[in-house]
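Hi R.,

Here's the input for the 26V complex you asked about:
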Amino acid sequence: MTSASSLARSTTVEKPEPRLNDADTIATEIVEKLTYSIGKTVKAARIHDWLEATTLVVRDRIIDNWFESTIKTYERQDKRVCYLSMEFLIGRLLRDAISNLGLTETVREALARYDVDLNLVELLEPDAALGNGGLGRLAACFMESMATTGVPGFGYGIRYVHGFFRQEVVDGAQVELPETWLKHGNPWEFERRESSYEIGFGGKVSAIEENGKLRSVWRPGERVLAVAYDTPVVGWRGQHVNTLRLWSAQSLDPILLDAFNAGDHIGALLESNKAEAITRVLYPADSHQAGQELRLRQEYFFSSASLQDIIRRHLAQHDDLTNLADKVAIQLNDTHPAVSVAELMRLLVDVHGMEWDAAWKVTRDTFSYTNHTLLPEALETWPIHLFERLLPRQMQIIYQINAEVLREATAGKQLDDGTISAISLIDENNGRRVRMGQLAFVGSHAVNGVSALHTELMKETVFHDLHKVFPTRIENKTNGVTPRRWLFQANPGLTQLIEEAIGPGFKDDITQLAKLDPHAEDAGFREKFVAIKRQNKQRLAHLVEERLAIHLDPNAIFDIQVKRIHEYKRQLLNILETVALYEQIRSLPHLDWTPRVKVFAGKAAPSYVQAKEIIHLAGDVARVINSDPTVRGLLKVVFIPNYNVSLAEIIMPAADVSEQISTAGLEASGTGNMKFALNGALTIGTLDGANVEMLEHLGEENIFIFGLKADEVARKRAEGHRGQGVIDQQPMLRSAIDSISAGVFSQDDPNRYANLMNSIRDRDWWMIAADFRAYWDTQRQLDVLWKDRAKWDAIAVRNTARMSWFSSDRSIDEYAHDIWHAGPKGR
Ligand code: 26V
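And here is the predicted structure with 26V in place:
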């Protein structure tokens, strides 16, 4: 038998009979699972049991398609896309899976037969919060879009035992609590003990002679096991199912028997504790480098495991690794997996015996890298001594890559010392460090930013010199969000209304949302659109009432800023405008003020002092304003604790105004901006990140842009801008800052905000004082517009109609076509 036919025989499995998807069948199967998998009768079942049984029934249906997709990719030897990301911020999976399979109403009906409410069942599922914010959520949207558009995608990441911390606010201050998403098990994952790899750390490198050539041999001093856990990712209509493979660290030698037998029971377990610590917790900082050894261990651990897995799969189908880049594209989600560049070189050269030059070509052709931030404090570098101790062979390889890249860069050209030190992989100025951005850049054939402006700024700033040497390498791929989660599931009312207006075609082809545009002129349609917005606002108001005992009036403008708390995102600008508005309403109560509700939510990195002060201030301001009868009915402020994906799904559809007010040049893209606008909120924002493309697609009458532009910010900073000069010209701003400084909102501790306020008076690094007036004026313009409901509502409808370009399906098509050359659009 030829090897090809034996392969075909071994992989062609009998296709299972398609399952029936009517409510009777599903109800029967749920009860079967309850009985035989969970061991409960219908009578004894608690709602958690119904969740588990329902999940297992839905999962069965996904598994059938999962096998089919996997076998098809294997048999056709399709090029695969491996998305390496330290974070996947997935949220809940059950509703997503049911909805993508088209089973929402059927499952609802099946459960209703037992008086079980699907909505309540869904609420019990814990969020998979394996990410910090934008970068991790983008990875989750991309996984869903790859499955939807039929790109054979593999997500590779870390199975953290504890995801992003749970936030509570105690006496105004953020408190971080551990998150325990795996407490009741995880029915979505499959442990793959057979797919496990050894990962080494430390030890020594020696060179041995083999056939007249020198070969490096790394003998690590420590080894841990990476064990795979697979989760199926189902695309729209269940057509295609991809895999998210997350690695868990285990000790190779769980109990040191010698120590155990000698009576040292605790010592016998230390090894295993140390090994398993690698995947125990997600680092909760997204703005500055932690610099801890454990973080570097995490990065290398998941990079090496993923590459070993990719190579094993490749060699199962191909004779050697020379054609790796034809069969696999590896996308590096930021620099967190950048050590992969050195690790792939090590595997190719040291383990698989490839020549250096050939290996370098394979490496570069295989990798591509996405940059997600320009903030200097977030750019990863590692001290050489740490890198060398933990990864001695990879350090040697980095030196060699560096030497050759510098040779390539200087070939035929005269480069000055400044340029050479700027493109070097080693930073010599801050105590010798490895620069992970430079490593990712030189090891990739394509490097992308996540919005047009961000990509241009990458060329001018962080990668200025590398861009000159490799002028075609940087390109743009503007972010997107999946309309399945962020419109169909989060806003079923609006989805149904859209379907009534333009038919169901938009569900399979989101560009058809454009057909909604003329309905902006239709008063009858607008009325229905507004009725749905109102229901969504009521749902949010209900949640706030329940959790915080604060009453919100759905007739007011719901003005919402939800995202990580960071100085550059300028929650402080929003709070200052809120205080100024409060003071204006108090002093001019007879004016015709437009009622507003200001909503804030977001987490601060545990060590980020200013961000925590901003949370405290939001709470303090909320308490004073909400208890002041003079502004009752006109102004309310809430900070909702523990912002996460599930809360976002309730918040996005309930917004009238979306706050996207970062200091221009600093928000790489933003994706919340897209979710809000898709759900019919009006954006007030700076010309930053993807707001720029939103302006292009919406038209300038449908978005509210204010403030300094990126180049103006840079110029002002260079000129040594200070806040005080502006504050002196702005009585409203001065009064707001003075009130906060004087302790009006913090009578228990009047000096609490002295530093925060002084930072605006002095450096005003984030241009809060500089942009205050423009922001205030634009907010008042929105107040006026609110009174012209026909106009406001038409703009809201147009926002929904014009956002289809911001679907992550479009982003994925572009990656597939321009970078990966994989999937239906990539061939
Ligand atoms: C950086 C670091 C630094 C070391 C410590 C741990 C850690 C964890 C995450 C990060 C990445 C932060 C970058 C990030 O999340 N960027 C956001 O990416 C979004 C998706 O592209 C984009 O929409 C946001 O504008 C951008 O801030």
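One thing worth noting: The chain has three domains: 1-76+93-126, 77-92+127-478+812-820, 536-806.

Cheers,
M.
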